[in-house]
Amino acid sequence: MERIIIPTDFGVKAFKIIEAGVLLAKLMKASAEIIHVIDSFEYGINFVINESNPIILPPNVLNDKVGKAQSRFQEVVSELRAKYRDLPEIFMSVKTGFVFDVISEVLRDPEVVMVMLNDKSQADYNYRDISKNFSEIINKSSCPVCVVPNEAPFNDPKNIIYATNYHEQDIANIKSIIKIAKSVEAFVHVVHVTADKNFKETLAMIGLETKLKSITNYESLICKVIASKDIIQGLDDYANIVDADRIAILRANKTLFQGIFGTNKTRDIVYKTNLPVIIYQERKCH
Fold it and tell me: Which of the chain's termini has less CB crowding within 10 Å, N or C?
C-alpha cells in the first residue's frame, strides 16, 4: 500500500507534522505511517547498525521506550479522529538505530510516496541526524519530501505553486499535484521565474500549458512566466500575491538544471518561505 512516512520524536511540536502528514495522506489516498526511532546515540552506542549488527538495549529500557511511544501514538490518533472525519489508515512503526540511517533505509521502499519533515528551526527536535543532516535526507530520498515550517498552516490547499524549469519530469510531477488539487478544487499555478522574460520563455510556457491541459483536462490551471533577477524572491513574491498554500519544486541532479533546482537553491527556498514545500527528486537515468 502506498504510504506517507512521518518521522517523529513525539516532542512538543510533533502533533503538527503528524497532522500535516495525515491530511496529505488523505488527499493522496495513501496511508500514514508514523515512524518513531529509538536513537542509539542516546545510549553511547557508536557503531554501525545493520541486520547483522543490530542495536541491543536492555529489555526494560526498550520496553519502556516502546510503551511510551505507543501511548503517545494513541493520544495523537484520538486527537486527530476527534478533529477530522474520514481519515486514512494511520499506523506506527517503532525502530531502533541511528535515526538518519533508519529513515534513509525506509525511503528505499517503493511504496513510500512522501516523507514529511519539519524545517530547520525546530530547536527541540531531538532527532540528531534529521536536524543536522536535513539536506542529506532530501538528497538521498527517492520519493518527494514535504518540508513543513513550524508556523505554516496546513489546511486543504487552495493555491499550489509548481516552479518549473521545463524539465521533462515536470509533467508527471504536475499531474500528481493536480490529483491532490482536484479533491479540494484548488488552483495549480505552474510558474517559471527568469531574469529574461523573452519570447522564447513565453513560447515554452505556452507549449507546456497546452500539453498539461490536453492530458489533465484540469480547468483550474494557471501557467505564468515571471521576470525576476532573484529567482527565490520572485517565487516568494508570486506566492504572496496569489496567497499560495504550497510550493512544489523539482530538485534536479544534473548541473544543466541548476538555478532554481540546485541543492543550494532548494535549501534557500525552504528557508525563505513560510509555506510547506514539496520537493520532487529527479529520477536518475540508468
Answer: C
Check residues 190 and 59 and name the one with the higher pLDDT.
190
Of all residues in the chain, what percent carry a pLDDT higher than 90? Answer: 47
pLDDT digits (tens, 9 = 90+) for 209-245: 999 999 999 999 999 999 999 888 999 999 999 999 9
Full DSSP string of 208-256: HHHHHHHHH--SSEEEEEEE-SSHHHHHHHHHHHTT-SEEEEEE-SSGG
Q: Can you tell me the distance from the alpha carbon of 69 to that of 128, in angstroms, rounded to the nearest whole number? A: 18
How does strand 145-148 pair with strand 221-227?
Answer: unpaired
Task: Give the predicted TM-score (pTM) of the model.
Answer: 0.82
Q: Is 154 exposed, middle or buried (0-12, 13-18, 19+ CB in 10 A)?
A: buried
Q: What number of other Cβ atoms are within 10 A of residue 77's Cβ? A: 18
pLDDT above 90 for 135: no
Backbone angles phi and psi of 114, in degrees to 5: -165, 150
How many CB atoms lie under 10 A from the CB of residue 7?
28
User: Do residues 38 and 57 lie in contact, with contact meaning Cβ atoms separated by under 8 Å?
Assistant: yes
Which grid cell sits at 92?
A: 506506527
